[in-house]
Amino acid sequence: MLKDKDPVYVNPASVNHIATTFKPGEDPVTLAGDWDVRCKTFKEGTEFMRAYEHVLSGGKWCDTEYYTVTLERLSSGHKTWRNGCRNEADLIARCKKLDIWFADMRDNGWRQLPGEDYVTISVDRKGRYLFNDGQHRLGMAKLLGINRIPVKVVAWHSGWVKRRAPIAAYAAKHNGFYTEVDHVDFQNVNVHNKGRAGAIVGNIPAGCTTVLDIGAHWGHFCSKLTQAGHKCTGVELSASNCRIATILRDSEDLDYTILGTDIFSYLNKSRSFDVVLALNVFHHFLKNSRGYNKLVGILGNMDMKCMFLGVHSPTEKPMRTAYRNLAYDEFADFVVKNSCLNSYRVLEDLPHGRKLYLIS
């Protein structure tokens, strides 16, 4: 679990809102109440983001709300405003400094210098990230498409602390997670299976939109593919896994479907998806003739353009007495023969003697 004062890493694109009435202190706290309810989007709540979009499109600083509001505040009696600005000359110098910061981040990426304040965030009752401080650097990172920056969490809503409890309990019981959990509160937890999402996202054929994830577990792949622009449906038999998948989906504010049912019931009729994920799940159906025949049936019911197939090692102990123990290419060939797909290739060798195939 995250320690209160540890820096953590987030994708700037995941910090999208500001709690308009909440001003946290320097020490991390857990708070109840409605402090997380009244929000604006990051762009609505920060004049800088709108200003720099204008500047990047060729506009002038002096034509932005950021500039004019600062001048108005200085002229209305504020002795200093915005990082020590006392007059318009100071403001012009400040804008030039921001241009230098932007150019440095564009050319060198995010640099967290020793002694420099971190961007800070809070976590609302659903687990979503709320911006607190550091709008200039966070806004620049968003505009530049930087996908990982260090931040510090300064507040958690007590409702989220309660919602995340079963996830923390699972980690304690199992010495980690089955696959990645992206939320900042769990970045230091051990992960037993990781790294497959990048290979999948990078190899989905052009034009593919809809995705079916068979055995979705906690929705990790649905999350990654939704963020990549796909429309995802996850099918997961375990009710407890479905509850956690829903908690994590809501914490990321993403729109994908998690269905709590078994895959044979869901695919008892023909369904169409561009992409099907079957990651280390099909071998469970080979342990007896009934499961084997059901697997043949659902393969024939899927109208798909491609499948990402995770194949077990045939030497794994549970498979030694299986009804059919298909090994690697033999398993991929079995899928081709019983589905609408035609060919396969190995994408990656995975830990524990497993392989990832793309079948199309």
Descriptive report:
The mean pLDDT is 92. The protein has 360 residues and is an alpha/beta fold. The chain folds into two domains: 8-161, no CATH class; 196-359, Vaccinia Virus protein VP39 (Rossmann fold). The chain has helices at residues 42-45, 47-56, 65-75, 88-108, 135-144, 158-163, 165-174, 196-201, 220-227, 239-252, 263-266, 289-301, 329-338; strands at 8-10, 15-19, 29-31, 39-41, 119-123, 129-133, 149-157, 210-214, 231-235, 257-259, 271-279, 302-311, 344-350, 354-359. Helix 2 crosses helix 5 (135-144) and helix 4 (88-108) crosses helix 5. The radius of gyration is 25 Å and the shape is elongated. Strands 1, 2, 3, 4, 5, 6 and 7 form a seven-stranded mixed β-sheet that branches. A seven-stranded mixed β-sheet has the order 10-9-8-11-12-14-13.
Order of helices and strands: EEEEHHHHEEHEHHHEHEHEHEHEHEE
Unreliable spans are none
Helix share of residues? 25-40%
CATH class category of the largest domain: Alpha Beta
Number of domains: 2
CATH topology term of the largest domain: Rossmann fold
Tell me the fraction of residues in β-strands, as a range.
15-25%
Structural class: alpha/beta
CATH superfamily of the largest domain: Vaccinia Virus protein VP39
Query: What is the CATH architecture descriptor of the largest domain?
Result: 3-Layer(aba) Sandwich
Largest sheet: 7 strands, mixed
Overall 3D shape: elongated
Distance between the termini: 40 Å
CA-atom Rg in angstroms: 25 Å
